[in-house]
């Protein structure tokens, strides 16, 4: 067999395996999406693939989303929620998740970028020791710090507030953020910074006008990690926000939805897809920076 033929065959095998893996990962999400638009009786009696195999049998509907977003009292939606189970409103939880996730993503990015710039380009006593301590924090499980932080929050009156959750997520994400950004910022050519300093620029000017724009791939890469982690977080929200309905985020509401409406799959699939929608938008919006940010600083020279 010729080398060119073997090369084409190997590429074909790689493409085939990649396609199979992509389909295997995508099918459950596709099934979830299709089920979220199917009527209650159809979800109970047939699989989601009947939309493809028997297109005339199923009529898609938005009623599932109307119910879980707070329209359960609408007379036209009678029967979608069993009597006595109450009303569902994931819209307020969606807003709470946004209120928690956006600041908890932005705050650690700028703090970590400042720290990474200091470790990479400033010379001060104890810099190496502080950097080692920061890296060591990556190995510390966040679960062991929950109770001490909770005690301090109770003493300071921060428990049950969004500010407390922002500070907690900021502290838990800073070590990884600073490490990723340091790997990128330390590879920026020193000549660029020296030229700016010779023109009279201060460290603040260099950081805001040069470092941050050049570090967009690394910033976007960490933003994806932090956003997905905070958005899907349940433990930190339960500990620091508590069980107040007005403060509940999507993950808390979804757990309650599973407990109360565990047999009503038409509602659970719609609720699950709402929790997935924004992370998918964020990931696909920033994916062009994702690999570049992960590989930042891996190759020098």
Structural commentary:
By secondary structure, the protein is mainly α. Helix content is 71%, strand content 0%. The chain has helices at 3-36, 40-45, 50-53, 63-71, 90-121, 127-136, 146-156, 162-185, 190-198, 203-214, 216-231, 235-241, 250-260, 265-294. Helix 5 packs parallel to helix 8 and helix 13 (250-260) runs antiparallel to helix 14. The radius of gyration is 25 Å and the shape is globular. The two termini are 39 Å apart. Mean pLDDT is 81; it is low at 297-301.
CA-atom Rg in angstroms = 25 Å
Number of strands: 0
Overall geometric form: globular
Main β-sheet: number of strands, strand sense, barrel status? Answer: none
- Overall mean pLDDT stands at 81
């Amino acid at each position: 067999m010729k080398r060119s033929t073997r090369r084409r065959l190997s590429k074909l095998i790689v493409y085939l395996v990649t396609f199979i893996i992509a389909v295997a990962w995508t099918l459950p999400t596709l099934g979830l999406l299709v089920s979220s638009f199917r009527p209650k009786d159809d979800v109970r009696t047939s699989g989601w693939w009947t939309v493809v195999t028997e297109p005339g049998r199923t009529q898609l509907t938005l009623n599932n989303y109307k119910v879980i977003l707070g329209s359960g009292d609408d007379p036209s939606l009678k029967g979608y929620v069993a009597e006595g189970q109450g009303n569902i409103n994931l819209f307020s939880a969606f807003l709470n998740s946004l209120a928690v996730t956006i600041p908890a993503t932005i705050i650690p990015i700028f703090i970590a970028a400042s720290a990474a710039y200091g470790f990479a380009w400033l010379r001060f006593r104890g810099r190496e020791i502080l950097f080692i301590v920061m890296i060591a924090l990556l190995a510390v499980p966040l679960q062991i710090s929950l109770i001490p932080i909770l005690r301090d929050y109770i003493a300071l009156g921060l428990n049950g507030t969004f500010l407390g959750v922002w500070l907690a997520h900021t502290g838990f994400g800073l070590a990884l953020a600073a490490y990723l950004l340091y790997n990128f910022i330390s590879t920026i050519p020193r000549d660029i910074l020296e030229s700016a300093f010779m023109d009279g620029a201060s460290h603040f000017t260099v950081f805001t006008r040069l470092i941050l724009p050049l570090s967009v791939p690394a910033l976007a890469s960490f933003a994806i990690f932090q956003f997905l982690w905070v958005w899907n977080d349940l433990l930190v929200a339960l500990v620091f926000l508590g069980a107040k309905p007005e403060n509940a985020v999507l993950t808390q509401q979804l757990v309650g939805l599973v407990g109360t409406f565990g047999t009503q799959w038409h509602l659970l699939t719609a609720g699950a897809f709402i929790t997935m929608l924004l992370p998918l938008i964020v990931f696909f919006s920033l994916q062009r920076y994702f690999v570049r940010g992960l590989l930042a600083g891996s190759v020098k020279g």
